[in-house]
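Deviations from the work plan: none for this task. Representative record:
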Amino acid sequence: MANFTERNDIVIRFSGDSGDGMQLTGTLFSDTTALLGNSVSTFPDYPAEIRAPQGTVAGVSGFQVHFSSSPIHTPGDYYDVLVAMNPAALKANARWAKRDATLILDSNAFDQDQLAKAGFCTNDPLVELKMENYNIIWAPLTSLTKEALKDSGLDLKSVLRCKNMLALGMCYYLFNYPLDHTEEYFKKKFAKKPQLVACNTTVLRAGYNFAANTHSFANTYKVAPSQLEKGKYRIINGNIATAWGFIAAAEKSGRPLFCGSYPITPATGILEELALRKDLGVKSLQCEDEIAGICTSIGAAFAGSLAVTTTSGPGLSLKSETIGLAVMTELPLVIVDVQRGGPSTGLPTKTEQSDLMQALYGRNGECPTIVMAASTPSSCFHYAFWAAKLSLEHMTPAILLTDGFIANGSIPWKIPDMDSYPEINPPIAKEGENYLPYRRDERRLARCWAIPGAKGLEHRIGGLEKDAIKGNVSHDPLNHQKMTELRAAKVAKVVDFIPAQEIIGDKEGDLLVVGWGGTYGHLLVAVKKMQKESKKVSMAHFNYINPLPKNTKDILGKFKKILVCELNMGQFASYLRMQFPQHDFLQYNKVQGLPFTVEELKIKMESVL
Amino acid sequence: MLTQQDFKTDQEVRWCPGCGDHAVLAALQRVLPVVAEKLHYNKEDFAVVSGIGCSSRLPYYVNAYGFHGIHGRATAISTGVKAANPKISTWQITGDGDALAIGGNHFIHAIRRNIDINILLFNNEIYGLTKGQYSPTSKFGSVTKTSPYGTIERPFNPGELVIGARGTFFARTLDGDLKLTQECLLEEALHNGTSVTEMLLNCVIFNDGTHSHFAGRDARAEKTIVLRHGEPMIFGANRDKGLALDDMKLKVVNLGENGITDKDLLVHDATEPDTAIHMLLAAMKSPDFPVALGIIRKVQDAEYNQKVQEQANEVFAKRKITTITELLNSGETWEVK
C-alpha cells in the first residue's frame, strides 16, 4: 500500500439492482471523502420503480460521486471507476466510462441467467460492449460475502444484502481511505442490532483486505484534501436544505412554519424533513391530495403562519387554481416545485427544467407571482429563505423551483452563520388600527396581514375581485383594471429588493452563456474551461426569474452572442425574448432526464463562437 | 356579552328572497355569542371559511375573520386555519356541490382526521349559483337543466357519508326550524372533533319544495322525528308513533297498538361509538320513515389538534435542537482549518 498515485479528481459510480443498496454505498463513500477534506458532488440516479425486475437494465440504480483536491461543481460527466454489481449495471453505464476506467465487477453475478436478463447475446459482455481493454477487476463479491459471514448466524437474504459493503471496502483500499467513518455509521445506525454492526463491519473489512491481499489493483490512488474555505462544514442535499431554509425563515420572522403537502417524487424529502422537525415547532400536514396540500397552507397563511407547500410538476398543475387564490387574497405562501421530467407522470426520478412556463404563467387570469430558482443543493437553503422573506414581506405567493438533480444531490456546505441572514418583517396589522384589508404601503405595494385572534381586525377576503381599499367584493370594471395592475406592480416592485445579476467572467465579450437553476455547476465548469482557453466567454446564471434583476438588460447588451442553456425546449430563452426582443437568443436544450455534461456544453459553446 | 348584532356586517345580503340561507345566517349570528360565552371566545377568535356556491357567500355577512375560498376546497382551507391555530373557533360553510362533489375528497378526509371544525352543510339538492343543474344529492330521476330526462345517478345521503367515514358528529336540521338549527350549531361548537350539520334548505328558484313533503309546516310533525339523546324515539303530531328495531331493521310502530308502549321503542344514544344504528337513522327516508333531525351522532374520539399537541409536547420535552443554528450544526460536521 506504499505505492499510490496522486490524482486531482476522481469520479466513481456505484451501480447495481434497485435492491443492492447502491444509494447507501455511494452516500457512505461520499461522506468519507468529504470528512477527509475533499470537494465532493454526488448524483443519485435511480429508477422510478422501488424494485424493478431484478437483473434488468431498467432496474439499475446508480450513485455517482465526484471527489477532488480542488473545488468542483458537478458530479462529473464520465467515471474513472465503476462498481457493477451485475451485468445490467455494466450495460447501463457502459457509455459513461472514461477511456482508462477501472471496472470492479461481481464475478458471481455474471452468469448466463444474469447476462440474459441484461440482454447480452453472448457470454462475453465486455467484448459485446467493446470494453475488454479497460482495467477490469473481477471480484467474487457474493461468495466472499457469504464466506465472511458464514458463522454470523445471519439468514442468506440478510447476508447477501451486505455485499455492497464488500465493494465499498475494496474502494476504500483503492483510494487509501480509512474505514472508521463508515464503521461509526454502522454503530449509530444499528445501535439496537449489534449483530448487524458486526456483520457489516466484517464485510467492509473483508473487502478492504481482499483488495490488499490479492493485489486486485495494480495501482492505488490518493486524492489530496481540497483547499476549502476555512470553517465548519457538513454534507447537505437540496431537499433538506430547502426544509432548513424555511425553518430559518420562520425563526427570523417569528411566524410559525406550516407545511401542507402530499408525497410526490422527487419532492417528498422536504415534507419528510419538516415532519421530523417538531422539535423546532414545525407543523406539517400530509394531506389527502395536492390540492389539499396547498389549500391547508393557504388556510394556515390566513391564520398567520409562514405557509409553504412542496410538490413536483404534476402537483404544481393541481395547485394552479389555489395559487391564483393566494394571488387574489394577497397572502404569503411559498410553493416549492422540485422539477422532474414531464409532461404528465413523465420521468418521476429524473431531472428536468420544464416547469418554468407553468410556474410563470400556468394559472387562469392575470396572475403574477414571484418565481425563483435554486442552483445547487446547498443554495436551496438560501433561496428557500429568500422566497419566504420576499413572500412574507411583499404579501404575495412565491414559487421556488429546484429540480431532481439538486434535490437529491449532495455537496459539502460551509455552515452559514445565521447572524449574516437578515430579519424578516411581514407587514402585520396592529390592533387598534382602522384596518382596511387592501390598503398598501408605497414601497412594496403590500397590503397588511391581519391575523385571526387580533382584536378589532376582523375582515373578509376571498377569491372574488375586491375593492382596491376596503376589500369588499367589487365587480366594478375600473376597479378590476386597477387591481390587476396593482397585483402586477406589486410583484414587479420586488426587483428593488433583490440583488443585481452577477456575471462570471468579463462584463463584455463574444459569448454570454445564460442559465438558470440546477444547471449551474455544469455550466460553470464548461465556461471556466473556455475562459482558460482564453475564449471571451462569460456566464450569467439566474436565480431570480420573476422579476428579473434590474441590470439584466445591461448585461445582455454587452455580448456579441447569447446562448441560453436549459434542460427543456427553450422556456427561459422564450421568456427572455419576450422581455428583450432586441436580442437574439441562441439555445442549447436537452430533455433526456439527465443533467448536461460539461463536454457537450463546451462543444456547443465552441460551435457558436 | 356579545349579541347577534355584533356578528352582522355592513354588506347587503344578496340571497334570493325566501332562500333558506337567510335562516341559517340568522341562526349562526344568534349562536356565536352563546358559543363565545360558553367556550370563552372573544369576537376576534372566530373564523368563517367557505367554498363556492350560494351558501358560500355567507362569510361576507358575518363580522368575524372570513375567508371565501374556491370551489370544493373549503374543507381543506378550514383544516389549514384550524391546524395552524387551534385556538380559533373555525366554522365552515359549504353546499351539497361544494362538499360532496368537487370537494368530496377533502370532506371525508377532514372527517377521518377528526379536526375540530364546525361544518354547516347546506343541502338544497341543486346547483343554484350556476342556475339549476343536478347535484350529488339530487333525487334519482330529478329533472334539471343537465338532466332533462331525469338523473340516472343515485344520490349521496350526507349523513351516511359522514357516519360511514366514522365521523364523530352528525346532525340534521331544517331551514324552517330556527330553534333546532341553533341547537345543532351550538352542539357542533361544543363537540371536540369534525362536526357536520346537514341543513335541509329550500331553493325557491331552482328546486322549490324539494324537502316540503316532510319539511313543510303541515307535514313536519308526522314526517320527521327529532332525536334527543336518552329519550325514546317518538314522533307524530299526537306523539303516537315511534321507532323500534325489528330483525336488524328500523320499524315504525304505533304506540298503543298491539300493546306497544314507549318501553318497546329505541332509546336514542348519540354517544354510541358503533355506527350501525346511527347509520340506519341517518338513512331513513320519507314517506316510509320519518326523516331524522337533531343530533344523530356525537361520540368522543381522538381530535387531530389534540394529538398534534401531545406529540409536540413529547418531542419538546426531549428535544436537543432548539434553534436553526443548532440544527445546522447537528449531526456529522467537520472543521476545515
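The radius of gyration of chain A is 26 Å.
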